[in-house]
UniProtKB/TrEMBL annotation, chain A:
Keywords: Transferase
Coiled coil, from the record: none
Signal peptide: none
Gene Ontology molecular function, alphabetical: sulfotransferase activity
Name of one Pfam family that matches: Sulfotransfer_1
Domain Sulfotransferase positions: 9-272
Name of the protein: Sulfotransferase domain-containing protein
Membership in a protein family: Belongs to the sulfotransferase 1 family.
Domain of life: Bacteria
InterPro entries assigned: P-loop_NTPase (IPR027417), Sulfotransferase_dom (IPR000863)
Automatic annotation (TrEMBL), chain B:
Protein name stated in the entry: Hpr(Ser) kinase/phosphatase
Annotated InterPro entries: P-loop_NTPase
Domain of life: Bacteria
Organism name: Falsiroseomonas algicola
Length: 282, 313
């Protein structure tokens, strides 16, 4: 069975960038079982993004707090959990690295972070589907530096704009962070997963890595979702696990939408190898 | 010697008489002349920074056998002591009225646990003289469902906390938490209670006090528990419906659905909690109630509950 050092590790990303897939890959690695890990038992209730865990640990319900009060308490919460964690804990987060006051939203006590990013042009399509909105509506969110997200089970949090999210997590020096591009994860899942294992100081055999990948394949996840549903699916969404395509934007986005994305995020895109539509692939 | 004056306000909360020098919004004031002596005093007073030798701690709280100290940064500190005294100390610049909701929530829960109570994170209504409880964390839809049930003719019992106490015979009794409903504006509109809307729960929080139709239960008599529902969101795999839980799953669910579970464990963990849960399960079933979160589905949920209650007679 694969082994990881104890401690809190953030699986951080802008939404729709492969976070859930990475979480399922690691859950399958940790479980080390012949059958796939149940996608509905990923302990999202234990997540530090969730209202249940916050209320359970902090003895106060988040819906009685304003955004400043919540922002003050979340680093306390994460710091306490990080200091007491005696098992590996991979915790999903979409929080921007820095809060409105510039301090880290989740403190800096985690032992590390895996940051996933994806071409914002494909994120826009996936986010629109996830929200049941148009691409233009998704883009309005992606370009809003003050955008807040949250839900009935999830704490409200500062997401900000896509470029600020990527720049914040990849440019900070407080939490050791390993950056993974979704496109690379799709192209060579095993190599990327081995890279994550190395970064986290984990150990797994090739057989364990291969099995975790098979258990986390899109077909396997869609099969589980069709049979049993997925708790993290949005109301009104037909299914959570879509095709997860790379480069879908080339068929779907309009020139005006591409222009909006490149105008806002061009510099960050180039830095991470997402060449603007008119540029020569490099 | 100057005689200390008695706190001016008296309330009935979860079966206790609370004497307070702090006014609590939207609660029925008791006549000091006609009520028994106070069980608990609540006062605006100095609260220490920390407990000396805590036996339990969380990110923002410490506890020992007789005290809980809760620190909400930028809001205030709260000390619940010996099951009798609750002190509130607002942070600088914070109005006392803006922090009472934490005192009556977590603070009084600590007092009740120190006195050996069992608390569920639940709202409750009364139908045919029996109590039906709806458990779930904040955001699960407890208050909205309860508001809709009171509109459909049920009596209102509790909004957020249900104190369960043993009865001389028969099912354990639920004590009202003495508060009115707390709802977001969209819920208030959908259940048709706009006329009953009171002040916000806190200055910066868009949740409002709402008087339930028929008023609050003020007599202090407990109501026998008939059934307990854990609220869950419906999904394609778990469509709307009511599913009874087997005893072991029901016991685990009740522990998880305790109000401020970590305090339940801190004060009742060493053998106090398990027999109470067993006694409750002996008399009342626990079901999962899967419901759509869409307001349009509320009427269907209520019809389903009334049908279920008919089977429990």
């Amino acid at each position: 069975m694969a082994a990881f050092p104890a401690g809190l590790v953030w699986l951080a990303s802008y939404p729709k960038s492969g976070n859930t897939w990475m979480r399922i890959l690691l859950a399958n690695l940790l479980a080390g079982r012949a059958e796939p890990a149940d996608i509905n038992r990923l302990s999202e209730e234990e997540s530090l993004m969730g209202r249940w865990r916050f209320g359970d640990d902090m003895l106060v319900d988040a819906d009685l707090l304003d955004s400043r009060e919540l922002a003050r308490m979340r680093p306390l919460h994460a710091g306490f959990v990080a200091s007491r964690q005696t098992t590996p804990f991979f915790c999903k987060t979409h929080d921007r690295f820095a809060g409105e006051d510039g301090a880290p939203s989740l403190g800096a006590a985690a032992r590390g972070a895996v940051y996933l990013l994806r071409d914002p042009r494909d994120v826009a399509i996936s986010l629109a589907y996830h929200l049941g909105a148009t691409v233009d509506e998704a883009l309005a969110r992606m370009t809003d530096p003050a955008h807040h997200f949250g839900g009935a089970r999830q704490l409200p949090y500062l997401l900000g704009d896509w470029g600020g999210h990527v720049a914040g997590w990849t440019g900070q020096g407080l939490t050791p962070t390993h950056v993974v591009r979704y496109e690379d994860l799709r192209r060579d899942t095993a190599a990327v997963l081995r890279g994550v294992l190395r970064f986290l100081g984990g150990q797994a055999t090739e057989v364990e890595v291969s099995r975790a990948i098979a258990h986390s394949s899109l077909e396997a996840l869609q099969g589980q979702e069709a049979a049993k549903g997925f708790r993290e699916r949005q109301p009104g969404q037909a299914r959570f696990f879509r095709a997860g395509q790379v480069g879908e934007w080339q068929r779907v986005l309009t020139p005006a939408q591409l222009e909006t994305i490149e105008e806002h995020f061009g510099a960050v895109m180039i830095r991470f190898g997402y060449a603007p539509a008119g540029a020569t692939p490099g | 010697m100057i005689e200390q004056s008695a706190p001016p306000y008296r309330y009935r909360i979860s079966g206790l008489i609370v004497a307070s020098d702090v006014a609590l919004p939207m609660r029925t004031l008791l006549d000091p002349m006609g009520t028994p002596p106070a069980d608990v005093t609540m006062s605006h007073a100095a609260v220490p920074d920390r407990l000396d030798q805590p036996t339990r701690e969380g990110p923002n709280w410490t506890a020992d056998d007789r005290r809980l100290l809760l620190d909400l940064p930028g809001i205030g500190r709260f000390l619940a002591e010996d099951g009798r005294r609750l002190a509130l100390s607002p942070a600088p610049g914070v109005a006392l009225e803006d922090i009472t909701v934490f005192a009556t929530g977590t603070g009084l829960a600590a007092i009740l646990y120190q006195r050996g109570a069992m608390l569920l994170h639940a709202s409750a209504v009364v139908h045919d003289g029996r109590a039906f409880l709806f458990c779930g964390p904040s955001g699960a839809g407890k208050s909205t469902l309860t508001a809709a049930l009171t509109r459909a003719g049920c009596g209102f019992l509790s909004d957020d906390v249900c104190a369960i106490e043993p009865a001389a015979e028969g099912p354990p009794l639920v004590q009202a938490d003495g508060r009115v409903l707390r709802l977001y504006r969209d819920s208030i509109g959908h259940v048709g209670l706009a006329d009953a809307m009171g002040p916000p729960v806190r200055q910066q929080v868009p949740k409002f006090h709402v008087s339930p139709p028929g008023g609050t239960a003020a007599t202090g008599a407990g109501v026998p528990v008939a059934a307990i529902y854990a609220l869950m969101e419906a999904s394609p795999a778990t469509p709307p419906g009511i599913t009874p839980l087997a005893p072991v799953a029901a016991a685990q669910a009740l522990l998880r659905l305790s109000y401020r579970r970590r305090l339940a464990l801190a004060y009742g963990g060493s053998g106090g909690l398990a027999p109470r849960i067993a006694s409750l399960l002996h008399h009342a079933g626990v079901c999962v109630l899967h419901q759509d979160r869409d307001f349009a589905a509320l009427d269907g949920t209520i019809a389903m509950l009334f049908r279920h209650w008919d089977t429990l007679r």
